[in-house]
Amino acid sequence: MEHIITIEGGAAFAVSTEEDSLLRGALRAGIGMPHECSVGGCGACRFDLVSGDMETLWAEAPGLSERDRKRGKRLACQSRPRGDCTIRIRCADEYTPAVAPRRGLARLEGRRQLTPDMSEFSLRTAWPAAFLPGQYALLYPPGTEGARAYSMSNLPNADGLWQFVIRRVSGGRGSNALFDRLGVGDEVAIDSPYGNACLRDTPAREIVRIAGGSGLAPMLSIARAALARPDAPPVRFFDGARTAADLCGESLLGDCPPPHRLSYTPVLSMPDASPGWRGAVGFVHEEVKRALPQPLDRYEFYFAGPPPMIDAVQTMLMHKHGVPFQQIHFDRFF
Ligand code: FES
């Protein structure tokens, strides 16, 4: 069953009520509805319901403040229409999906341990793995409610191979279900691709990737894609981790030709736990500022990681070094 959604002063589109939130229905229809995380965390998809009936999927989603709730705001990624509706939201071309998201089942082909709490999951679908480097998929871990967002770490391919670098989060039901309840040969629901922090066609500027924790996967995909372009400038990769045992970026990038175009800088935030470590220490954004030849507005920046890291990098680049927003690309991971 489908309901028709009309954007005040704009387009109308159909949403499948069995499967889709308002946001996913819009993106599947090629509408440029604002979004970042797709899972209720960022607030980018706030809208007003002008008329009609809309179910709220997660009432406490952190993407809405108390003030937003009092003003009647809703999240498109946490809303599902119960009938035809009219909404108010400002759409933009930059959010129009280059590849329309597709939902189905993927089979786990293999799992490779990378660090004590991170593994590479390789999934296979019956359709091509079509996405832009830096985008993410929604996976539905077995026995849990709702989806979790994980970025692809490989490159798009016609063989339907989707690879993810996933960290087991202490107390995180989604990641623990993937590690403990999804065996090789099992199927898991996948809905992909989403996200806007993709590799842009602007090879003239040197490219800087900054990864922290679970933000490693999209930075790997973007670095692999950039290094595959023969005419692209060098890539500088900063990999933030707690200890040396948590680092795996360099080995995963080892298959990228040609290695001389890649500089890799690991940065440890807990160096005391890694005896003998002689590399960079501290916050990864501090090392970026220290290690890169200035001025910083000569680079194109891509970064992914936990919200405090994203905020610190964004503040450092935009407010302290005047890097234009158009040269900054990021997604938040929760
Ligand atoms: Fe809806 Fe982030 S809260 S896209």
TrEMBL record:
Cofactors demanded by this protein: FAD
Protein origin, superkingdom: Bacteria
Limits of the FAD-binding FR-type domain: 101-200
UniProt protein name: 2Fe-2S iron-sulfur cluster-binding protein
One Pfam family from the record: FAD_binding_6
Source organism of the structure: Thauera sinica
Ranges of residues in domain 2Fe-2S ferredoxin-type: 3-93
Keywords annotated in UniProt: 2Fe-2S, Iron, Iron-sulfur, Metal-binding
Taxonomic classification: Bacteria, Pseudomonadati, Pseudomonadota, Betaproteobacteria, Rhodocyclales
Entry keyword Transport: no
